[in-house]
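Q: Can I see a sequence and its folded structure?
A: Here is a first one.
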Amino acid sequence: MRAVALMLLFALSACSEGFVTFPVTQAGQAAAPEDVEIIRLDAGNIATFAASGRDHLPAQIPSGRAWDYRVGSGDVLNVIVFDHPELTLPAGSDRSAEQSGFRVQSDGSFFYPFIGQVEAAGSTTGMIRTEIATRLAEYIPAPQVEVRVAAFNSQSVIVAGEVEAPKRQPLTTVPLTLVAAVNAAGGLTDTGDPGGITIQRGNRRYRVDMAGFLDGGLRRNNPVLHDGDVVNVPRRRAQEAYLLGELVEPGVIDLSLDRVTLTQALARRGGLDEVRADARGIFVFRQRGNTPAGKITVFQLKTSSPSGMLLGTRFVLEPRDVVYVVRSPLTRWNDTIRVLLPTVLATSQFGDIADDD
């Protein structure tokens, strides 16, 4: 699809000779097509366009209670009764702490000497410690008990998608955040999208912009994961702007990794053609909505003075923007718009098709 889009770019570059009178006047704007809005960028309105429409948004996933690990079936517990080694199963050289511990059975309980079955599922280690100590007090004066989880088997999350090592990750007494889980899975691949991560929790799916935490410091965008969560890191979709016309190197700019201003984009394509370009005629075509009937906004930036290029450093491009640098000499603005619009729309629509692939 990118090859087709590039063909359209060069077709557009060839389809317009000079047609524009600068600057665009109020009368010229009034005579523009009905579905076209023309905005001249200046010091008075540039702040409106200094932020991308893709700014980070707070995650909508519920924060829930503070993390407190609850024991479940399959967990292995170590129980230590101080000064009573006969009630503590030693690990020894041939047995690990997991092998010498008490495994919580499918009914949520485990057997402990003297006191019998102890209900553990759904309880914290502190709650289990209190129950054991209370029941042991019938046999031992003031027992001092410690309970630890030797093996975390009952709760986990799954991290899948565009990470280096997709896998199941157990939950422990240490809260597992989204960033920690992704890092434990080897981090994102080169094609992973940190801004489009989803967390499936029960019957609900939440979108979490992890980049909002990494770049913008939004703590809510680094949620603590719960048992059964499925984290999916999607493949990064193409987000491109198209630069054409009288540039040294017309082509495509990738917007998926960072925000790119108009001046940055022009510089990355080698800047304006010093002989052929008219620095008064840099236009950005932006379509609202994804249908051919969507309204077109055309931004005009005059860069014939240093202040114009400075204004361009504050204008953030959005995906599917088409930047066009016109040729001089120029005569009629409205004819230029009418000539450019069909190919601008075609270029933008091919960008949408590429996104969907």
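Q: Show me another, different protein.
A: A second, unrelated one:
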Amino acid sequence: MENKESFFVHESSYIDDNVKIGDGTKVWHFSHIQKGANIGENCVMGQNVNVGNNVKIGNNVKIQNNVSIYEGVELEDFVFCGPSMVFTNILDPRCKYPQVGAKYYHKTLVKEGTSIGANATIVCGNTIGKHAFIGAGSVVTKDVPDYALMVGVPAKRKGWACECGEIFPTFHDEIKCPRCGLNYKLTEDNTLKNIKDRT
């Protein structure tokens, strides 16, 4: 570990060798950070969090209680993982025919600003777009567009969410967020783009 004085680890937690943890990050009770993990600045790991070997986590990420981030999963900056949500990293696990090692893992990328609700499941091999909102208990089985509100089993897009978290009502073409003022436009391929205008 590097710069141990610059972050907090509760005495009940375990940090393996060759782990990097950024300034201001907090690792709370009964958690385990495995070798090769790289965790950014100002993150919060709740109680009973497991971060697998070689996992990369960005800055300002919040991981709530009882979440395991397995090898093959990457979280960008400002990702929120709700309590007891689940990641996987193998599509067809069999105890009789073990698939051991990174070459078997299907990569999962969770992009900047995404929120994943409590008890949701993210099936491996998919990318969750920027600022997406995954509803509690949903099961994601395919790629998710930026800003998409995903709900259900399997998860389907039920709307759009602003970068700030505001859920948009039904609209056509363009919308301005009533909470933060960001402007968005629907593209021809039915994806949402931030116009980057806070007027």
